[in-house]
User: Fold this.
Amino acid sequence: MSNERCTYFVPGPTWVRPAILQELTRPMIGHRSAEFRELFARINADLKPLFATQQDTFVVTASGTGVMQAALENCVARRVLVTTCGAFSERWYNIAESLGYEVDRLDAGWGKAIDAAALGDHLARHHRAHYDAVTITHNETSTGVTNDVAQLAQVVREEAPDALVLVDSVSALGGIPMQFDEWNLDVCLASVQKCIGLPPGITVAAVSQNALARAKKHPYRGTYFDFIAYKERADDSSVPSTPSIPHFYALAAQLEHIMRGEGLEARFERHRKMRDATLEQTSRFAKLAGDPAHASATVTALTPVMSVEKIRSEMKQRGYTLGGGYGQWKETTFRIGHMGDMPLEDLQAMLDVLGEVARG
Ligand code: PLP
Assistant:
């Protein structure tokens, strides 16, 4: 199967450019060597503008779920508020419960975005809860809905100034704007197999000084995901334990492409165009499943007038892989991932074929 052209439209892992796959085949270097330090320093210099932060950025060898757990373990002592609007925001809830925290939930319902007024109201009514943190999912991949992180974080700052803001930007970072410092966030994480356009296996994160100060107060942060250990090693351009070195090579090359090849603004614009083309070319035979006012630039969940299975299998026969529905929307929706390095022309070629399939 050729990888030269993108025929894979699943919302992660996403298509990876052949040049990036090549980077994964470089010879090994030691992670305590001067070569690794130089590689790490290059990566870190590009991660800061990607997150728009002057604070600390890390690369963790784990998938995004691992760093969601890490964020909770480092930042929460007792109580957390989880905002939910689909399967991945619910994952925060499940992890927090499994760690034994007292977890409250503000649920917007599947397909909706979190409402800032409802969040403000909840925090005002529960001011005695003393939340250590509030979790926000930047882009809910199961429903194709993007939350307004800037607005939600501001509400947390106003109503619960001591609560840290933990953001899952897994299917947004690199495809949808992120302003970590300006929005006053405390942890923001993204695994790299979505809009960053790499194979899965590592996660990038930005961590605020406030989050690090909070972590320092927790004696039982565990070992593998200890943010303080990450910080101390990062100050020396290194990591606490043996990382996936092939991914570090690929990440350095991909950040070079994102920041100085395509450019961040052009990348965001391409993602918006991919969303608009998807909505326009599917409107005749499928309804947007989530709130149109919050339609994601990176993934679209659609309810078609015909069988979801038929659409996906007929597209597969024509060489195209589309994403299935997720969780409670599994039977009724399919998803088109339009994220990462996917060329707009390849998406358009797929949408033309999808239009033919839908005509029957
Ligand atoms: N959060 C969101 C929004 C996701 O889309 C996903 C995966 O699809 C995750 C978290 C979990 O990330 P990972 O599979 O890298 O653990």
